[in-house]
């Protein structure tokens, strides 16, 4: 805990000094500051999402400020502070999203390569690196089957390094990133993977992610593959109560396949995600089913009506256990409702971007199942409903 | 009569739509591939082969002249270029291009800053400190 505290302090100090350097020394083209403010509204007929949405909730807010400085031809330093308020999942506390030094050691016309050291963004799928920046998302909420909002920290960034490189090919380019480090964790990760805030916590994490992307010259086609593994050590302060997890390790293996086709007015995007979870060594209820594999995928069609107006439709599917798609086995084994084990989401949405600073969105979700619903916002398992509707509004300003 | 009109139209058209890539005279390259040009304007290339920093100048992204340049010279849909910038800026991997308001300002900035690159319409006069970069 103490170590974490100092790490946080260290990053904050780094970020601050970075901004300080900006103000004191740099000329007008070597540094920049960007930021964004997002306010959301959510309304559901049943179940809570982003706060107490059954009665309408404004409990969704994202604030971010980032700075990038070019220290020399090959050195870039950047950092971003983010505050996110989302119901009981995120309390709005300021955190360092990334703070890194980027060194470009190879730069040629046929490609380039470099290294990033510090707190770096996890290269995962299409949207993960900028998932909290509304302007870079295709919708208010990203497909929850892949981009869990209830276990965000683990997916967001890691303390470590990324080696990256791009090689030009005759008709396109290939870009590869390899991350090694300690992914961030918090009690939400416990909720997401252990379904509760148990006595004890994850104290050590480590992992790697490898993402490779191929794109055609004009980006009309982009295909990416992500592969990785995270290990989280769980530490229990004493002897665990019956059923509770004890000292052990949560092992997560991830595979993502991402495909996108782009035309002038249309984009078609699909991603498939498989996560292998091994929690057998934790004991307790987890020993009942020591290994499980979840499966997720979505297909999304975006249409740009004008440069300001766009709409999209999406089908998002999530199975917590791909060998128990209807949830019946889990119901029998653990006594949880079967519909907790999956989620099928139809989404329709519109976006309006009247200027490069403003973005407004509205979307409607018709959901079957509660597979990705946050326990923090829905503590009473028996009150969760299988079929529910979710309506979201969002306004974003950026500079 | 129609032929004459067509001829006149052809004479005028390229002047309206075409732009050319210019770089500060400190840049040692005289020609680049379209692929490399896109890598530069999408802010993925940070350093010129001769070692100096790349400094990219563009017109405001919503302006017709910019969109025309992106479509004609980079062969890309303008919305994708914005997407690439945003993704790299908000993940800490890159910087945004510098935005200027006119071709005159573009020529001025590219002439004054080492390693600078931008684009101007064909009919703009040159400058002794900026040169045309040929796109192969």
Radius of gyration of chain A: 21 Å
Q: For the residues shown, what is the average pLDDT of chain B?
A: 88
Structural class call of chain B reads: alpha/beta
Q: Helical percent range of chain A?
A: 10-25%
CATH structural class of chain A: Mainly Beta
* Gyration radius of chain B, in Å: 16 Å
Largest sheet of chain A: 16 strands, antiparallel, barrel
Regions with little confidence, pLDDT below 50 for 5+ residues of chain A: 1-7, 22-28
CATH superfamily of chain A: Porin
CATH topology of chain B: D-Maltodextrin-Binding Protein, domain 2
Whole-number count of domains of chain A: 1
**Strand arrangement, major sheet of chain B:** 2-6-1-5-3-4
Q: What would you note in describing this structure?
A:
The complex is a heterodimer of chains A (399) and B (136). By secondary structure, chain A is mainly β. Chain A has four helices and 16 strands. Chain A has a single domain (2-398), classed as Porin (Beta Barrel). Chain A is globular. With 136 residues, chain B is an alpha/beta fold. Helix content of chain B is 40%, strand content 19%. Chain B is globular and about 60 Å long. Chain B has a single domain (18-135), classed as 3-Layer(aba) Sandwich (D-Maltodextrin-Binding Protein, domain 2). In chain B, strands 2-6-1-5-3-4 form a six-stranded mixed β-sheet. The chains are: A mainly beta (399), B alpha/beta (136).
Itemize the secondary structure elements and their pairings.
The complex is a heterodimer of chains A (399) and B (136).
Chain A: H1 2-25, E1 31-44, E2 57-70, E3 75-86, E4 90-108, E5 111-121, H2 152-156, E6 157-168, E7 172-183, H3 187-194, E8 201-216, E9 221-235, E10 248-262, E11 266-278, E12 291-304, E13 309-319, H4 328-334, E14 342-352, E15 358-368, E16 387-398
Antiparallel strand pairs in A: 1-2, 1-16, 2-3, 3-4, 4-5, 5-6, 6-7, 7-8, 8-9, 9-10, 10-11, 11-12, 12-13, 13-14, 14-15, 15-16
Chain B: H1 2-17, E1 19-24, E2 31-32, H2 34-41, E3 55-58, H3 64-72, H4 78-89, E4 98-99, H5 103-112, E5 116-121, E6 130-135
Parallel strand pairs in B: 2-6, 3-4, 3-5
Antiparallel strand pairs in B: 1-5, 1-6
């Amino acid at each position: 805990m103490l170590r974490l505290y100092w790490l946080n302090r260290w990053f904050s100090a780094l970020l601050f000094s970075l901004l300080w350097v900006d103000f004191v020394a740099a000329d007008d083209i070597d540094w920049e500051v960007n930021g964004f403010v997002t306010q959301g509204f959510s309304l559901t007929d049943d179940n809570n999402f982003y706060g107490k949405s059954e009665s309408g909730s404004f409990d969704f807010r994202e604030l971010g400020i980032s700075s990038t400085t070019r220290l020399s031809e090959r050195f870039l330093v950047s950092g971003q502070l983010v505050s996110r308020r989302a119901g009981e999942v995120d309390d709005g506390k300021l955190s360092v999203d990334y703070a890194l030094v980027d060194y470009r050691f190879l730069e040629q016309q046929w490609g380039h390569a470099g290294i990033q050291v510090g707190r770096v963004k996890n290269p995962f799928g299409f949207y993960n690196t900028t998932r909290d920046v509304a302007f870079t998302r295709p919708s208010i909420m990203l497909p929850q089957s892949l981009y869990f909002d209830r276990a965000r920290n683990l997916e967001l960034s890691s303390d470590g390094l990324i080696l990256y490189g791009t090689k030009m090919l005759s008709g396109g380019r290939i870009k590869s990133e390899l991350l090694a480090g300690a992914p961030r964790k918090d009690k939400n990760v416990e909720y997401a993977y252990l379904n509760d805030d148990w006595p004890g916590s994850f104290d050590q994490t480590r992992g790697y992610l490898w993402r490779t992307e191929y794109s055609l010259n004009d980006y009309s086609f982009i295909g990416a593959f992500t592969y990785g593994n995270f290990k989280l050590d769980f530490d229990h302060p004493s002897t665990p109560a019956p059923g509770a997890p004890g000292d052990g390790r949560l092992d997560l293996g991830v595979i993502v396949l991402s495909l996108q086709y782009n035309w002038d007015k249309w984009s078609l995007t699909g991603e498939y995600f498989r996560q292998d979870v091994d929690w057998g060594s934790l004991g307790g209820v987890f020993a009942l089913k020591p290994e499980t594999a979840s499966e997720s995928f979505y297909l999304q069609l975006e249409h740009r009506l004008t440069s300001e107006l766009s709409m999209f439709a999406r089908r998002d599917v999530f199975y917590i256990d791909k060998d128990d798609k209807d949830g019946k086995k889990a119901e029998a084994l653990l006594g949880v409702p079967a519909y907790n084990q999956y989620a099928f989401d139809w989404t329709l949405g519109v976006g309006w971007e009247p200027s490069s600073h403003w973005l407004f969105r509205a979307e409607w979700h018709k959901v079957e199942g509660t597979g990705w619903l946050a326990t923090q916002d829905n503590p009473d398992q028996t009150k969760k409903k299988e079929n529910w509707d979710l309506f979201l509004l969002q306004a974003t300003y950026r500079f | 009569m129609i032929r004459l009109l067509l001829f006149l139209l052809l004479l005028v058209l390229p002047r309206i739509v075409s732009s050319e890539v210019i770089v500060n005279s400190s840049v040692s390259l005289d020609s680049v591939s379209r692929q490399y040009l896109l890598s530069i304007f999408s802010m993925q290339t940070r350093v010129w082969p001769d070692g100096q920093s790349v400094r990219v100048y563009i017109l405001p992204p919503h302006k017709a002249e910019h969109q025309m340049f992106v479509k004609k010279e980079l062969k890309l849909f303008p919305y994708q270029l914005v997407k690439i910038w945003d993704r790299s800026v908000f993940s800490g991997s890159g910087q945004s291009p510098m935005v200027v308001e006119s071709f005159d300002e573009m020529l001025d900035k590219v002439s004054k800053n080492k390693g600078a690159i931008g684009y101007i319409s064909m009919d703009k006069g040159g400058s002794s400190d900026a040169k045309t970069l040929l796109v192969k």
